[in-house]
Fold this sequence. Notes:
Elements: E1 19-21, E2 24-26, H1 29-38, H2 45-55, H3 59-71, H4 77-93, H5 97-105, H6 114-127, H7 131-140, H8 154-167, H9 171-188, H10 191-207, H11 211-225, H12 231-247, H13 251-307, H14 309-382, H15 386-417, E3 425-429, H16 430-439, H17 442-447, E4 451-454, E5 461-465, H18 466-482, E6 489-495, E7 501-508, H19 515-521, H20 541-552, E8 556-562, E9 566-574
Parallel strand pairs: 4-6
Antiparallel strand pairs: 1-2, 3-5, 6-7, 7-9, 8-9
Helix pairs in contact: 2-3, 2-4, 3-4, 4-5, 5-6, 6-7, 6-8, 7-8, 8-9, 9-10, 10-11, 11-12, 12-13, 13-14, 14-15, 15-20, 16-18, 18-20
Amino acid sequence: MVYRFEIFLVLFLCVFSTKLYAQERVYSAFEQYVVNRSDALVQEIDFKKAQSFFLEKEWDSTLLYTSKVLTLENSDTALTNFSHFLRGYSFKQQGVFNEAKSEFLKIKENFDFALHVQIFLGEIALEQSLYNEALEYLKRIETVPDEKLLGLRRSNIEANIGLCYLHLDEYDKADAYLQRNLAFLEAEKDTLGLIGAYGNLATNYDYKDLFDKTIFYYQKAYDLSTYTDAYALKADASFNMYQIEKYLNNPEKAYQYIEEFNIAKDSLNSQNEVARVLQLEKQIVVEQKQKEVSLLEAENKVKEAQKNGLMLSSVILLLLLGTGVYFYREKVKSNKIISAQKEDLDELNATKDKLFSIVSHDLRSSVHALKSSNTELVDNLEAKNLEKVNTLLHANSSIVNGAYNLLDNLLNWALLQTKQSYFEVGELRLFFIVEQVAHNYKALLQEKNIHFENTVPKKDKVFADQESLKIILRNIIDNAIKFSNAEGAIKIYTEHTKEGFCDLVIEDTGLGMSEATRQNLLQETIVTSEKENKDIIGSGLGMQLCKSMIKKNNGTFFIESTLGKGTKMIVSLSKIPPDGYY
C-alpha cells in the first residue's frame, strides 16, 4: 500500500536577481538581453519609461507607459511587439494570467524574444492546470540551443515539462525530466531549487508506487530545508515527513515533524505579516515623497512667478484660487471620512451588541450548568458515590468543552466581522485537511464509541483559505459528534455534482432536525430560534461562522436532514484557481 502525498507545484521562474554593489543596479542575464535588444526603441519617451520601470519590477507603471505607447499611431512593429511583451510579462508577474496570455498572443512573428513567448505561454498554461496545452508550448523549444534562450535556464523548462507529465499521470516521462532538472540544480548547488526538485521527484515516485524512493527524496528535501530560512519550503518538507512517519506508524517521529510544521507555519505567517507592514510603510513613504515633490514644484512655480513682474499678480490669483479649491476638496474629503467612520462605528456597535447578547445568554447557561453540577459533585464526593462522581466529571468536561468552543467561535467571528482575520487562498488537498482536523476529535469519538470514516480521495483539490477551512470543519464535526448517539457513525466524503466545484459532505447518523430548523440554519441569522434538543447547549454562532467563511471562500453551503435519521452538511468549494492566483 502506497501513501499518496500532496504535489507541491514548483515553477522555477527566477529569471531576475537583484544585487547592490556601491548603490549600482546589476541586471540578470535575461534583463540585460531585454535592455540590449530594446535600446534602439528608447527614443520614444514613454517606451523608455516603460523599460526603466520594467527593470525596477514596477509592474503597474510598466503597464501604464506601454499602454500609452500602444495608443500612438505608429507602424513600428518592433516597438509594438516589445510593448506587448513587457505588458504580458508584467501581467504574468502579477498573476493575471488571462491578460498576460492575451498580450503574448498579440506579438507578431520575427520577434527577438519569440522563444520566451512560447516558454511564458507554457508556464501560464501550467499555472492554469492546462497541462496538454503547456506541453504543446514547452516541447516546441525543448531542443533549442542554450544560447538562443537569452538568459533563461533550460532546467526550468525541463522541470515544467516534468510537472506537466506528472499531472497527466505519465510518471516515467516525468521522472526523466525531473532527474535532468535535479542534476542541473545539484551542479549549481541551488539549495531552494533542490528542495522543490526533491519534493517533485518524491511525489512522482509515490504515484509510481516506489515507496522507498518516495521516502528517500522527501527525506533529502527535509534535510536540506533545515539549512534555509524559507519557511514555506520548511513547512511543506516537515508536513511530508509527518505523513510518512504517520503512515509508518511512528507516532513520536510524526509528532516531532508536525511540531516543526506548526513552527514553520507560524514563522511564515509572521514573515508575511512583516512583509505586509513593510509594504504599507513603503507605500506611505512613496506617498510622502510624492507630496514633497508636488510641494517643491509649487514652490518653483512661485519663484518663477516672482522673477516675472508682469506675471506676479496673475500667479498670486491662481495660487489663491487653487488654495481655495484645495481646501474645499479637503473639506469634502474630511466630511466623507467622518461619514465613513460613523458608519464603521455604528457597525462595530451593532457587532458589540450581538456579541454581548450571545455571551450573556450562552456563557451564563454554561457557567450555571457547571455551578449546579459542581454542587452535586461535592455532595456525591461526601457520600462517596464514585459512580455518580464519574458521571458528573464527564458532564463537566462536556460543558467546559462547549464553553471553550463558543469562545473560540466568538473570537474568529469577531475577527471576521471587523475584517482583521488573515485570509490567503491556496491549493489544498481535502483528504489531509480532514485528517488534521479529525485527529483533534479522536478522544471524543472514542468516548461516544462513534465510528469515523474519511473516504475523501487523496487527489481531490480545492482552492480555499486553509485556516478558515479548518474552522469550518471543526464546527461541523463538533456538531456531528454532539448530535450523534453513542455507537453512531460519521462519514466524510466528496461528490462532484457541479462543474468547477467539489462538494465536501459530512454525514452523521445522529438526531437529525426538522425542516423548520434546517431552513432556519440556512438563514443569515446569528442565533437559532429553536432547538430540537433542549439539553444540548448551543447558540448557532458556530454555524453562522461557517456560513460566513464558506461565503468568503466563494463556496456554498447546504443541509440535508430528517428528524431522527441523521444529517448531511454539504460544503461546496471551487476547484478552479481565482483570477490573479499565482
